[in-house]
Automatic annotation (TrEMBL):
Protein name: STAR5 protein
SUPFAM superfamilies: Bet v1-like
Gene it is expressed from: Stard5
InterPro entries in alphabetical order: StARD5/6, START-like_dom_sf, START_lipid-bd_dom
Known function: May be involved in the intracellular transport of sterols or other lipids. May bind cholesterol or other sterols.
Biological process terms in GO annotation: cholesterol import
Keywords from the UniProt entry: Lipid transport, Lipid-binding, Transport
Ranges of residues in domain START: 1-156
Stored Gene3D superfamilies: 3.30.530.20
Length: 156
């Protein structure tokens, strides 16, 4: 979990190589080639007219949280094992897509939540295997490289 958080911190600090691919008035999406796997990294950025704490309540990875209510790509989120009050093993499921051409997915990740001195909040995750969460029927087991969300306070 700490390695995933550190990898996200490094992505955030390194502005080189990001190329814009989509932008609306609210969100800008950029990409760059990954140094870890044969594919691309993606990041979405936007400023929301809300307090960082209210935004964090919507995105933080906790069982029973708001993410499953607003994110159509997250069907369920459960904590398999709480390692500490900031680190847990979690299972996330996604619905089928493209008229069921793409099967539902399940991801098992170690997740860490952090708050930094400047008020920034982070959730970082990466793939793990866990004996209490074997692959489930009717799901394709997905694999996450280090990934997560930053919630960064801005003036005003």
């Amino acid at each position: 979990a700490e390695e995933a958080a550190e990898q996200l911190r490094l992505y955030r600090q390194d502005p080189d190589g990001w190329r814009g691919c989509r932008s609306t008035g609210e969100v800008a999406v950029s990409w760059r080639p990954s140094a870890e796997f044969a594919g691309n990294l993606y990041k979405g950025e936007g400023i929301l007219p809300a307090s960082p704490q209210n935004v964090w309540e919507c995105i933080k990875p906790v069982a029973g949280g708001l993410r499953t209510k607003w994110d159509q790509n997250v069907k369920d989120f459960e904590v398999i094992e709480a390692i500490s009050d900031t680190v847990s093993i979690c299972r996330t499921t996604t619905p089928s897509a493209c008229m069921r051409i793409i099967s539902p997915r399940e991801f098992v990740d170690v997740v860490v939540m952090k708050q930094y001195e400047d008020g920034t909040m982070l959730s970082a995750a990466t793939n793990v295997e866990h004996p209490l969460c074997p692959p489930q029927p009717n799901f394709v087991r997905g694999f996450n490289y280090p990934c997560g969300c930053f919630c960064i306070p801005v003036p005003g």
